[in-house]
Amino acid sequence: MTQPWSPGHADDNTDDAPGRNGATMASNPSSSLPVTGRLMAVDLGERRIGIAVCDPQQTVAQPLTTLTRRHGKRFPLKQLRPYIQEYDVVGFVIGLPLSPDGLELEWARSVREAGTLIRDKTGRPVEFWDERMSTRRALSAIRDLGGGTRGRKGEVDQLAATVVLQTFLDSRNR
Predict the structure, then answer these.
(1) Residue 4 lies in a domain
(2) Exposure winner among 100, 137, 162, 164, fewest CB in 10 A?
(3) How many other β-carbons are positioned within 10 Å of the β-carbon of residue 24?
(4) Pairwise CA distance, residues 30 & 56, whole Å
C-alpha cells in the first residue's frame, strides 16, 4: 500500500547538545541529523547500493563506492562498516523511492527497513530523503560530460547517492 510521503525520521534526536564525535545536533525539528560532521548517503537498489559522503562542513557531496548484495538478502552492513569508521560518519541520508506524485513505492518498505537496521546497528541518526530523479540526474551528468553509461552501473549508483546527499545538503543550507 502506498502512502503520501512525509519526511521520515528514524531518529528524532534534535537537541543542541554535542553529538557523536563532537557534532552539533540540529535544533530544527524537521531534521534529526547533526549539522556538522560527515554524512553518508545510501541509494539502495536490489543488487547495488550507491554510497556517497560529504565533507565535515556538509557543503559538498562526493561519490564513495558501490556495495553489492545478493538478490533477496539483507542489507550488507558488514561491507559498509569500514567506510563508516574511515570517514567518521555522524549520520545517514537514505534515498526514499517515491512515485512522481510523492507516494511511497512498494520498494520503500525495504528501504525503511534498511534505514532502521543502519540506525540500530550503528547508533547514528538516519533521515529518509526523496530520491526521485536521482538516477536520471546521474545518467544525465555522465552524458553531459561526454561519457557513456554502458558497463558503469556501479558508478551511476554512486552518483545517484551523491545527488541525493547534495540535494539534502542544499536544502539545509538555504
Answers:
(1) no
(2) 100
(3) 15
(4) 21
